[in-house]
TrEMBL record:
UniProt-recorded name of the protein: B-glycosidase
GO molecular function, one term: hydrolase activity, acting on glycosyl bonds
Keyword Hydrolase applies: yes
Domain of life: Bacteria
Record keyword Hydrolase present: yes
Record key words, sorted: Glycosidase, Hydrolase
Length: 402
């Protein structure tokens, strides 16, 4: 799988942002999907910009038509993000009406998108509920611009309640629709000279990280209506900065690559698997700069180690397909399959060859196509091929991030 950065948040000092526009994916959709097609990738995470299609509860999804046409021509299957950090200006997430408004939007989106796309139909109602609650209600980066832990907890529960309502609304339209609830894999440790912070770091790792998924699964706050069927598929995002040293104020400090406190990705996935016993994907992962190919190699080895242990890991999403800017500085992160080269104001995707070569190596190892054929939907992925490869290769978890 792959995907495109599609945030539509209100940013702290810049107003409404639209990352699909900033990366020019909105005018380059067919070209971007053709790149995925040529790479043998048939599934892409794509966003519906809730703030831009919802006008006071009246919906206009016509801006999605170019994407839908491009998907049809390139034969790309979407996994739709319905709220990627942004909500309409007239919506208050702390208001009791928030969940109903979101459910109405989800129902309308499903009614518009499902007849226009190939099955299976997959949705992420609210992307990264846990991270959204941090950056919106404790760090103050995005709306609602709150800055306390209590606001973060309240915002997270409001997002969970809305997501559950959204799942149920979508399934009123399409009972067979699949949900992928995506949040970061997180491991937090105390500073070596602060043993007094061991417990708070452990709580964030073992409790806080899972609360949103727990609510969606009905394990916590069952009065909100969660269940294993609502949780459905767990999408666990994996980035190097997800393993951190605790800080009392603001984001924690990412661990250095050689830090002996790093936990193998396979073990982090194992915690998710043991907790929910639901199908899993890695919802996003990528390295940075010249480390992208090495990062992919590590992620694949850890993922196959997880499959070899019996975990139901069904996919890895290389995110993003094309580069994206750092939210704070605007500088290109060089974390995509393709970098973006500015040619007189037009951003041209250029593949990172080492990254693509590593992708090709794993496609061959797992008996996957290198380029999509005329009818990619007639040849579904055989997960047994992946299981067989995991048993054959016998990769073992390690802390090495290359």
């Amino acid at each position: 799988m792959s995907g495109f950065e599609c945030s539509t948040f209100l940013w702290k000092d810049q107003g409404r942002r639209n990352l699909n526009s900033e990366t020019q994916h909105d005018v380059r959709a067919l070209e971007d999907y053709q790149i995925l097609r040529e790479l043998g990738i048939a599934v892409a995470r794509e966003g519906v910009p809730w703030p831009l299609v919802d006008r006071g509860g009246r919906f206009d999804f016509s801006t999605l038509d170019p994407y839908l046409d491009a998907m049809k021509r390139a034969q790309i299957l979407p996994l739709w993000d319905l709220c990627h950090y942004g909500y309409p200006d007239d919506v208050d997430p702390f208001d009791d009406a928030f969940g109903a408004r979101f459910a109405a939007y989800c129902r309308a989106a499903a009614e518009y998108l499902i007849p226009r796309t190939h099955a299976p139909h997959c949705f992420t109602p609210i992307n990264e509920i846990t991270f959204f609650s941090f950056c919106g209600a404790e760090w103050g980066w995005v709306a609602p611009y709150r800055k306390t832990k209590s606001d973060r907890h309240a915002f997270r529960l409001a997002l969970c309640k809305a997501a559950i309502a959204g799942v149920k609304a979508i399934r009123e339209v399409a009972p067979e629709a699949r949900m992928v609830h995506i949040d970061p894999l997180v491991h937090v440790v105390a500073p070596r000279d602060r043993p007094d912070q061991i417990e708070v770091a452990r709580h964030e790792t073992c409790v806080d990280t899972f609360l949103a998924w727990d609510v969606l699964a009905g394990m916590k706050h069952p009065e909100l209506g969660g269940s294993p069927e609502v949780l459905d598929i767990v999408g666990a995002n994996n980035y190097s900065f997800g393993q951190m040293e605790y800080r009392e104020q603001g984001p924690h400090k990412a661990l250095d690559p050689d830090d002996d406190r790093i936990v193998p990705l396979c073990d982090l996935l194992g915690t998710v698997w043991e907790r929910y016993c639901r199908p899993m994907i890695i919802g996003e992962t990528s390295g940075m700069g010249k480390g992208r190919d090495a990062w992919l190699r590590d992620v694949m080895e850890e993922s196959l180690a997880a499959v070899d242990r019996g975990m139901d890991l069904q996919g890895v999403c290389l995110f993003p397909a094309v580069d994206m800017p750092d939210w704070h500085t605007g500088e290109w992160l060089h974390n995509g399959i393709c970098d973006l080269i500015d040619t007189n104001g037009s951003l041209k995707p250029v593949a990172d060859r080492a990254y693509v070569d590593e992708l090709r190596r794993w496609q061959k190892e797992l008996n996957r196509v290198l380029t999509l054929d005329a009818d990619p939907f007639s040849d579904p992925v055989e997960l047994q091929d992946v299981i067989d490869a995991a048993h054959r290769l016998q990769h073992r978890p390690d802390r090495n991030w290359c």
